[in-house]
Each structure stands twice: as structure tokens, then as C-alpha cells.
Specification:
The structure is a single chain. By secondary structure, the protein is an alpha/beta fold. Helix content is about 40%, strand content about 20%. The protein has a single domain, classed as CBS-domain. The strands form 2 sheets. It has a 3-stranded mixed beta sheet. This is CBS domain-containing protein.
């Protein structure tokens, strides 16, 4: 099975100028653990992520909810797989880096979706 077959689509995105408060509202509303940060002018180009871990870190540092996603998120070392990679590649990447999400990209780098551990558990249940 391919990554495109198990990913969450469409990914929930946010722009880097949004506040931490706005971003956490999106996380709660969609019951997800990761927002993909995209360019305002190109919503298919991922430039970062804001994870639950990023939010916890910001709160621990006493950051106000008015800080921007750019200040609170992760913008280097983005982890991704390609849509046509086997699902096992996503699992390997998550285990290697100790993360719970990977981005799913088209070959040209456009954002297509996100695979979470929750998605992989559903995939495993279907495979049994």
C-alpha cells in the first residue's frame, strides 16, 4: 500500500503569521496533533509545522498566546515521504526520528497530506 492510501487529506494548514491561539483552536477543532505551515501565497508549499509538542514547549517557555506560528513552530528538518512511497517508509521515518507525523508530498514538493500514527494504526488494523 502507498502513503497516499493511508494519509489524512486534505491536510489542515496554517500560515506563519497566525497566532498560537488561532493555531491551537484549529488543532482542537479538527482533533489533530499537527498543522502544516504553508506560505500565504502558495498553500501547497509546506515551510514548517506546528505540533502539539511545539505548543507545549511554547507554553512551558511562558510564551503568550499572541506569539506567531513562525515563533512557536518548527521550520527546519521537515520530515516527509512521497505519496507513492510504501507505507512502511512513513513508519520507518517516524520511528527513526521519534515523531508522530510525516508530511506527504507529491514528487514536485507540493503538499498532499499528512500521515499520523493514528493513520498507521488504522492501516495496521485493516491489514490484520
Amino acid at each position: 500500500m502507498k502513503c497516499r492510501d493511508v494519509m489524512s487529506h486534505p491536510p489542515i494548514t496554517v500560515t506563519p503569521d497566525k497566532t498560537l491561539e488561532e493555531a491551537t483552536e484549529l488543532l482542537a477543532k479538527h482533533d489533530i496533533g499537527l498543522l502544516v505551515v504553508v506560505e500565504r501565497d502558495n498553500p501547497r508549499r509546506p515551510i514548517g509545522v506546528l505540533s502539539e509538542r511545539d505548543v507545549v514547549r511554547a507554553i512551558a517557555w511562558k510564551a503568550p498566546l499572541t506569539v506567531t506560528v513562525r515563533e512557536a513552530g518548527t521550520f527546519s528538518g521537515l520530515l516527509y515521504v512521497y505519496a507513492d512511497d510504501p507505507v512502511e517508509k512513513a513508519l520507518e521515518t517516524m520511528l527513526k526520528y521519534g515523531v508522530r507525523h510525516v508530511l506527504v508530498l507529491e514528487q514536485n514538493g507540493d503538499l498532499l497530506g499528512v500521515i499520523s500514527m493514528r493513520d498507521l494504526v488504522k492501516y495496521c488494523k485493516l491489514s490484520i
